[in-house]
Amino acid sequence: MLNDMLMKQATDAITLANGRLLPLSKPLVMGVINITPDSFSDGRQYLNPDTAVEHALRLESEGADMLDLGGESSRPGAEPLSVSEELARVIPVLTKLRSRSTLPISIDTYHAETARVSIENGADIINDITALQGDSRMAEVVKKSKAPLVLMHMQGTPKTMQKSPFYDDVISEIDSFFTERIDFCVSHGIDRSKIILDPGIGFGKRLADNLAILNHLSEFRNHGLPILIGLSRKSFISKIHPTEKAADNRLGGSLAGAIIAVQNGANIIRVHDVRETVQALAFIQALWGDQ
Predict the structure, then answer these.
(1) Is the pTM above the cut of 0.85?
(2) Phi then psi dihedrals of residue 151, to 5 deg
(3) pLDDT tens-digit profile of 101-157?
(4) Of the residues 75, 221, 233, 270, which is catalytic?
(5) Domains detected in the chain
(6) Does an H or E element contain 138, and which?
(7) Is residue 163 annotated as part of the catalytic site, yes or no?
(8) 150-172 pLDDT per residue, tens
(9) Residue 284 — left, alpha, or beta (φ > 0 → left; ψ -120 to 50 → alpha)?
(10) CB atoms closer than 10 angstroms to residue 251
(11) Is 98 an active-site residue?
(12) Which is catalytic among the residues 221, 234, 239, 245?
Protein backbone atom coordinates (compact mmCIF):
# COMPACT_ATOMS: atom_id res chain seq x y z
CA MET A 1 0.00 0.00 0.00
CA LEU A 2 2.82 2.44 0.91
CA ASN A 3 4.62 1.74 -2.36
CA ASP A 4 1.42 2.39 -4.30
CA MET A 5 0.94 5.72 -2.51
CA LEU A 6 4.51 6.80 -3.18
CA MET A 7 4.25 5.91 -6.84
CA LYS A 8 1.06 7.96 -7.12
CA GLN A 9 2.90 10.88 -5.53
CA ALA A 10 5.64 10.80 -8.19
CA THR A 11 5.90 14.22 -9.80
CA ASP A 12 4.19 14.85 -13.14
CA ALA A 13 6.86 17.38 -14.09
CA ILE A 14 10.32 18.55 -13.08
CA THR A 15 10.71 22.24 -12.19
CA LEU A 16 13.96 23.49 -13.73
CA ALA A 17 16.35 26.03 -12.22
CA ASN A 18 14.70 28.90 -14.11
CA GLY A 19 11.19 27.85 -13.09
CA ARG A 20 10.21 26.17 -16.36
CA LEU A 21 8.40 22.87 -16.14
CA LEU A 22 9.69 19.73 -17.83
CA PRO A 23 6.64 17.43 -18.20
CA LEU A 24 7.05 13.72 -17.51
CA SER A 25 3.89 12.67 -19.35
CA LYS A 26 6.04 10.59 -21.71
CA PRO A 27 9.54 9.07 -21.55
CA LEU A 28 12.15 11.77 -22.17
CA VAL A 29 15.26 11.33 -24.30
CA MET A 30 18.41 13.02 -23.02
CA GLY A 31 21.07 13.51 -25.69
CA VAL A 32 24.72 13.15 -24.64
CA ILE A 33 27.40 15.73 -25.54
CA ASN A 34 30.84 14.66 -24.31
CA ILE A 35 33.39 17.49 -24.48
CA THR A 36 36.25 15.16 -23.63
CA PRO A 37 39.31 13.62 -25.28
CA ASP A 38 38.74 10.19 -23.71
CA SER A 39 35.07 9.28 -23.34
CA PHE A 40 34.48 5.61 -24.12
CA SER A 41 32.18 6.24 -27.09
CA ASP A 42 32.84 9.62 -28.68
CA GLY A 43 35.93 11.02 -27.02
CA ARG A 44 37.71 13.83 -28.91
CA GLN A 45 34.88 14.28 -31.43
CA TYR A 46 33.39 17.38 -29.79
CA LEU A 47 36.29 19.16 -28.08
CA ASN A 48 35.85 22.13 -30.41
CA PRO A 49 33.00 24.29 -29.01
CA ASP A 50 31.48 24.97 -32.42
CA THR A 51 31.52 21.26 -33.27
CA ALA A 52 29.96 20.40 -29.92
CA VAL A 53 27.20 22.99 -30.37
CA GLU A 54 26.38 21.77 -33.87
CA HIS A 55 26.20 18.22 -32.54
CA ALA A 56 23.85 19.35 -29.77
CA LEU A 57 21.60 21.14 -32.26
CA ARG A 58 21.58 18.02 -34.42
CA LEU A 59 20.44 15.97 -31.41
CA GLU A 60 17.70 18.54 -30.81
CA SER A 61 16.56 18.25 -34.43
CA GLU A 62 16.47 14.45 -34.02
CA GLY A 63 13.99 14.78 -31.16
CA ALA A 64 16.00 15.10 -27.94
CA ASP A 65 13.91 16.44 -25.07
CA MET A 66 16.96 17.58 -23.13
CA LEU A 67 20.76 17.58 -23.36
CA ASP A 68 23.51 16.41 -20.99
CA LEU A 69 26.77 18.32 -21.24
CA GLY A 70 29.94 16.89 -19.68
CA GLY A 71 33.60 17.89 -19.67
CA GLU A 72 35.07 14.96 -17.72
CA SER A 73 35.02 11.35 -18.84
CA SER A 74 33.53 8.87 -16.38
CA ARG A 75 34.57 5.78 -18.34
CA PRO A 76 36.16 2.95 -16.32
CA GLY A 77 39.74 3.89 -15.42
CA ALA A 78 39.29 7.60 -16.16
CA GLU A 79 41.46 10.10 -14.29
CA PRO A 80 39.78 13.01 -12.47
CA LEU A 81 39.84 16.46 -14.07
CA SER A 82 40.63 19.81 -12.47
CA VAL A 83 37.79 22.29 -12.08
CA SER A 84 39.58 24.90 -14.20
CA GLU A 85 40.01 22.48 -17.09
CA GLU A 86 36.43 21.27 -16.80
CA LEU A 87 35.13 24.84 -16.91
CA ALA A 88 37.34 25.64 -19.89
CA ARG A 89 35.73 22.78 -21.81
CA VAL A 90 32.14 23.20 -20.72
CA ILE A 91 31.35 26.91 -20.43
CA PRO A 92 32.16 27.97 -24.04
CA VAL A 93 29.87 25.21 -25.32
CA LEU A 94 27.15 25.99 -22.81
CA THR A 95 27.03 29.71 -23.55
CA LYS A 96 27.01 29.19 -27.33
CA LEU A 97 24.37 26.49 -27.08
CA ARG A 98 22.18 28.47 -24.69
CA SER A 99 22.03 31.32 -27.21
CA ARG A 100 20.74 28.95 -29.90
CA SER A 101 18.55 26.47 -28.05
CA THR A 102 15.87 26.53 -25.37
CA LEU A 103 16.12 22.80 -24.60
CA PRO A 104 16.76 21.96 -20.94
CA ILE A 105 20.49 21.43 -20.41
CA SER A 106 21.95 19.17 -17.73
CA ILE A 107 25.53 19.71 -16.56
CA ASP A 108 27.28 16.41 -15.84
CA THR A 109 29.68 17.25 -13.00
CA TYR A 110 30.49 16.46 -9.39
CA HIS A 111 32.38 19.74 -8.90
CA ALA A 112 30.38 22.40 -7.05
CA GLU A 113 32.13 25.31 -8.79
CA THR A 114 31.46 23.86 -12.24
CA ALA A 115 27.81 23.34 -11.31
CA ARG A 116 27.49 26.89 -9.94
CA VAL A 117 29.06 28.59 -12.96
CA SER A 118 27.09 26.38 -15.36
CA ILE A 119 23.76 27.25 -13.73
CA GLU A 120 24.70 30.94 -13.93
CA ASN A 121 25.33 30.47 -17.65
CA GLY A 122 22.04 28.79 -18.43
CA ALA A 123 22.25 25.13 -17.36
CA ASP A 124 19.01 23.78 -15.89
CA ILE A 125 19.89 20.49 -14.15
CA ILE A 126 22.87 19.14 -12.17
CA ASN A 127 23.82 15.53 -12.91
CA ASP A 128 26.21 14.34 -10.18
CA ILE A 129 27.62 10.83 -10.61
CA THR A 130 28.85 10.90 -6.99
CA ALA A 131 25.40 11.77 -5.59
CA LEU A 132 26.85 14.78 -3.70
CA GLN A 133 29.70 12.75 -2.22
CA GLY A 134 32.44 14.12 -4.48
CA ASP A 135 32.38 17.76 -3.34
CA SER A 136 31.13 18.84 0.08
CA ARG A 137 30.01 22.21 -1.35
CA MET A 138 27.68 20.72 -3.96
CA ALA A 139 24.64 20.45 -1.68
CA GLU A 140 24.70 24.21 -1.05
CA VAL A 141 24.99 24.93 -4.78
CA VAL A 142 21.99 22.71 -5.51
CA LYS A 143 19.98 24.28 -2.71
CA LYS A 144 20.68 27.87 -3.80
CA SER A 145 20.20 27.21 -7.51
CA LYS A 146 16.92 25.30 -7.03
CA ALA A 147 18.10 23.13 -9.92
CA PRO A 148 16.90 19.53 -10.26
CA LEU A 149 19.55 17.04 -9.17
CA VAL A 150 20.37 13.60 -10.55
CA LEU A 151 21.64 11.30 -7.79
CA MET A 152 23.55 8.38 -9.30
CA HIS A 153 24.72 5.21 -7.61
CA MET A 154 28.34 4.22 -8.18
CA GLN A 155 30.52 1.71 -6.37
CA GLY A 156 33.99 3.26 -6.13
CA THR A 157 35.16 5.96 -8.53
CA PRO A 158 35.49 5.96 -12.32
CA LYS A 159 39.17 5.05 -11.88
CA THR A 160 38.43 2.04 -9.65
CA MET A 161 34.76 1.12 -10.16
CA GLN A 162 35.26 -1.87 -12.47
CA LYS A 163 38.00 -3.49 -10.37
CA SER A 164 36.07 -6.46 -8.99
CA PRO A 165 32.74 -4.82 -8.07
CA PHE A 166 30.60 -7.00 -5.79
CA TYR A 167 27.10 -6.94 -4.26
CA ASP A 168 25.22 -9.36 -2.06
CA ASP A 169 21.94 -7.92 -3.38
CA VAL A 170 22.45 -5.13 -5.91
CA ILE A 171 18.82 -3.93 -5.91
CA SER A 172 18.44 -3.63 -2.14
CA GLU A 173 21.87 -2.04 -1.80
CA ILE A 174 21.12 0.60 -4.44
CA ASP A 175 17.70 1.19 -2.88
CA SER A 176 19.27 1.74 0.55
CA PHE A 177 21.78 4.10 -1.03
CA PHE A 178 18.96 6.12 -2.57
CA THR A 179 17.16 6.33 0.77
CA GLU A 180 20.29 7.62 2.51
CA ARG A 181 21.11 10.13 -0.23
CA ILE A 182 17.55 11.45 -0.42
CA ASP A 183 17.56 11.96 3.35
CA PHE A 184 20.93 13.73 3.07
CA CYS A 185 19.57 16.07 0.42
CA VAL A 186 16.43 16.92 2.37
CA SER A 187 18.46 17.52 5.54
CA HIS A 188 20.59 20.01 3.56
CA GLY A 189 17.62 22.02 2.36
CA ILE A 190 17.19 20.47 -1.10
CA ASP A 191 13.57 20.13 -2.17
CA ARG A 192 12.76 16.41 -2.43
CA SER A 193 10.67 17.03 -5.55
CA LYS A 194 13.83 18.18 -7.36
CA ILE A 195 15.55 14.79 -7.08
CA ILE A 196 15.99 12.33 -9.97
CA LEU A 197 17.38 8.83 -9.33
CA ASP A 198 19.91 7.02 -11.52
CA PRO A 199 20.93 3.47 -10.47
CA GLY A 200 24.19 3.86 -12.40
CA ILE A 201 24.29 1.06 -14.92
CA GLY A 202 27.93 0.29 -15.72
CA PHE A 203 29.28 2.25 -12.74
CA GLY A 204 30.83 -0.39 -10.51
CA LYS A 205 28.51 -3.10 -11.80
CA ARG A 206 28.96 -6.59 -13.21
CA LEU A 207 26.95 -7.83 -16.19
CA ALA A 208 24.53 -9.62 -13.85
CA ASP A 209 24.11 -6.43 -11.82
CA ASN A 210 23.26 -4.35 -14.88
CA LEU A 211 20.68 -6.89 -16.03
CA ALA A 212 19.18 -7.08 -12.54
CA ILE A 213 18.81 -3.29 -12.46
CA LEU A 214 16.91 -3.33 -15.74
CA ASN A 215 14.72 -6.24 -14.68
CA HIS A 216 13.87 -4.74 -11.28
CA LEU A 217 13.89 -1.05 -12.13
CA SER A 218 10.29 -0.63 -11.02
CA GLU A 219 11.34 -1.35 -7.43
CA PHE A 220 13.05 2.05 -7.27
CA ARG A 221 9.67 3.69 -7.95
CA ASN A 222 8.93 3.23 -4.24
CA HIS A 223 10.68 6.57 -3.66
CA GLY A 224 8.09 8.39 -5.76
CA LEU A 225 10.79 10.14 -7.80
CA PRO A 226 11.68 10.19 -11.52
CA ILE A 227 14.21 7.61 -12.71
CA LEU A 228 16.97 8.22 -15.24
CA ILE A 229 18.77 5.38 -17.01
CA GLY A 230 22.03 5.65 -18.96
CA LEU A 231 23.01 2.43 -20.72
CA SER A 232 23.67 3.71 -24.22
CA ARG A 233 26.61 2.00 -25.96
CA LYS A 234 28.03 0.63 -22.69
CA SER A 235 30.45 -2.28 -22.69
CA PHE A 236 28.12 -4.76 -20.97
CA ILE A 237 26.15 -4.86 -24.23
CA SER A 238 29.16 -6.44 -25.93
CA LYS A 239 29.35 -9.05 -23.18
CA ILE A 240 25.90 -10.23 -24.22
CA HIS A 241 26.64 -10.03 -27.94
CA PRO A 242 30.44 -10.09 -28.34
CA THR A 243 31.85 -7.82 -31.02
CA GLU A 244 35.19 -6.30 -31.86
CA LYS A 245 33.51 -3.19 -33.20
CA ALA A 246 33.64 0.18 -31.48
CA ALA A 247 31.13 1.42 -28.91
CA ASP A 248 29.11 3.29 -31.53
CA ASN A 249 28.13 -0.08 -33.04
CA ARG A 250 26.16 -1.17 -29.96
CA LEU A 251 22.92 0.36 -31.21
CA GLY A 252 20.79 -2.78 -31.06
CA GLY A 253 21.51 -3.47 -27.42
CA SER A 254 21.16 0.22 -26.54
CA LEU A 255 17.67 0.37 -28.07
CA ALA A 256 16.56 -2.90 -26.47
CA GLY A 257 17.78 -1.66 -23.11
CA ALA A 258 16.02 1.68 -23.53
CA ILE A 259 12.71 -0.02 -24.30
CA ILE A 260 13.00 -2.38 -21.32
CA ALA A 261 13.95 0.52 -19.05
CA VAL A 262 10.88 2.52 -20.07
CA GLN A 263 8.62 -0.52 -19.72
CA ASN A 264 9.95 -0.96 -16.18
CA GLY A 265 9.48 2.65 -15.09
CA ALA A 266 12.29 4.87 -16.39
CA ASN A 267 11.27 8.48 -17.07
CA ILE A 268 14.47 9.69 -18.75
CA ILE A 269 16.78 7.74 -21.09
CA ARG A 270 20.29 9.17 -21.56
CA VAL A 271 21.52 8.23 -25.06
CA HIS A 272 24.01 8.91 -27.82
CA ASP A 273 21.71 7.76 -30.64
CA VAL A 274 18.80 10.14 -30.28
CA ARG A 275 16.96 9.67 -33.59
CA GLU A 276 16.82 5.90 -33.27
CA THR A 277 15.81 6.00 -29.61
CA VAL A 278 13.03 8.52 -30.25
CA GLN A 279 11.69 6.32 -33.02
CA ALA A 280 11.83 3.16 -30.89
CA LEU A 281 10.05 4.80 -27.96
CA ALA A 282 7.41 6.35 -30.24
CA PHE A 283 6.68 2.87 -31.59
CA ILE A 284 6.16 1.25 -28.21
CA GLN A 285 4.07 4.21 -27.00
CA ALA A 286 1.83 3.79 -30.04
CA LEU A 287 1.58 0.08 -29.27
CA TRP A 288 0.66 0.74 -25.64
CA GLY A 289 -1.94 3.25 -26.78
CA ASP A 290 -3.85 0.49 -28.58
CA GLN A 291 -4.03 -1.72 -25.50
Answers:
(1) yes
(2) -100, 115
(3) 999 999 999 999 999 999 999 999 999 999 999 999 999 999 999 999 999 999 877
(4) 270
(5) 2-289 (3.20.20.20)
(6) helix 138-145
(7) no
(8) 999 998 776 766 777 889 999 99
(9) alpha
(10) 16
(11) no
(12) 234
